[in-house]
Amino acid sequence: MRTPELLKVINNDDVRPVLLTGGTVISMNPMLGDWEQADVLIGGPVIVGVGPGLLTAAEDDGMIIIDCAGCLVLPSRTDFAETGTTGTLTPGDRADIAVIRIADPEGTPNGPAIARGGHLDVLLKDGRVTVWDGRPASDPPTVSEAAPPEAGIDHSYLGLWVDENDFVRQRLLPDGRYDEARGDRPSAYQGRYWINGTRIDYLDDLGFWAYGEFRDGQLHHAGYRFTRR
Question: Rounded to the nearest 5°, which phi and psi values hold at 104?
Answer without folding.
Answer: -60, 145
